């Protein structure tokens, strides 16, 4: 009777070790962080690359229909999370570039999350998106401001770049040309660098 329990315990330890190894494989080495630093040119010069990933924010936000989302729902992707509001002029100015970036790079390995803090909700964001011709961004809402607070965002716009586990590895305050060549080069390299170690990095 004890053998099945022992086997289950050993299996749990084995799977746990595999999970830890996989997670460790996603962490950037000092050389890789230095490579990202070297790509901080143009608008990206204001991007702060953290020495170590920050813990994933677990606070929930919502989609346009009010469904609950967390960063865990985007696991496996590099995420560019932009915290913004329709009343914020710099936020409005950079939204078309974020929309174009999403159109250019979105897929299994990358996504832009434009997280609105508008308390008026989805209707206001939808009207703004329609007015400026946003086609690629989904409506994401933080009406309570709880996610903004948990992420330590003190001003808008703020852009957080997250690794495939949802941990913040870089941050920029203020608007930027997010579909410019400097931003795309940095993001494309980050996507390559955060692939599991067993994958070939180019």
Topology:
Blueprint: H1 2-25, H2 30-38, E1 48-54, E2 61-63, E3 68-69, E4 78-84, H3 89-105, E5 110-116, H4 122-132, E6 140-141, H5 146-150, E7 158-162, E8 168-173, H6 181-193
Parallel strand pairs: 4-5, 5-6
Antiparallel strand pairs: 1-8, 2-3, 2-6, 4-7, 7-8
Compact summary:
It contains 6 helices and 8 strands; from the N terminus they run H-H-E-E-E-E-H-E-H-E-H-E-E-H. The chain has helices at residues 2-25, 30-38, 89-105, 122-132, 146-150, 181-193; strands spanning 48-54, 61-63, 68-69, 78-84, 110-116, 140-141, 158-162, 168-173.
Instruction: Quote the average pLDDT.
Output: 87
Radius of gyration: 19 Å
Poorly predicted regions: 1-25
User: Strand order within the widest sheet?
Assistant: 1-8-7-4-5-6-2-3
Helix proportion range: 25-40%
Instruction: Give the termini separation.
Output: 51 Å
Strand content: 15-25%
| Continuous helix count | 6
Biggest pleated sheet = 8 strands, mixed
Counting helices, strands and paired strands, the structural category is alpha+beta
H/E element order: HHEEEEHEHEHEEH
Shape: globular
The total beta strand count reads 8
């Amino acid at each position: 009777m004890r053998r099945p329990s022992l086997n289950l315990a050993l299996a749990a330890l084995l799977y746990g070790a595999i999970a830890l190894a996989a997670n460790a494989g996603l962490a950037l080495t000092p050389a890789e962080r230095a490579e990202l630093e070297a790509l901080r040119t143009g608008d990206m010069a204001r991007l702060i690359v953290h020495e170590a990933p920050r813990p994933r924010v677990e606070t929930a936000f919502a989609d346009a229909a009010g469904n609950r989302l967390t960063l865990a729902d985007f696991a496996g992707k590099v995420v560019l999370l932009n915290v913004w509001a329709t009343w914020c002029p710099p936020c409005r100015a950079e939204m078309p570039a974020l929309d174009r970036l999403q159109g250019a790079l979105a897929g299994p390995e990358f996504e832009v999350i434009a997280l609105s803090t508008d308390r008026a909700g989805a209707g206001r964001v939808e009207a703004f998106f329609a007015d400026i011709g946003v086609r690629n961004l989904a409506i994401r809402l933080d009406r309570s401001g709880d996610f903004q607070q948990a992420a330590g965002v003190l001003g808008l716009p703020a852009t957080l770049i997250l690794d495939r586990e949802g941990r913040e590895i870089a941050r920029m305050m203020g608007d930027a040309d997010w579909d410019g060549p400097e931003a795309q080069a940095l993001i494309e390299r980050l996507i390559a660098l955060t692939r599991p170690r067993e994958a070939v990095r180019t």
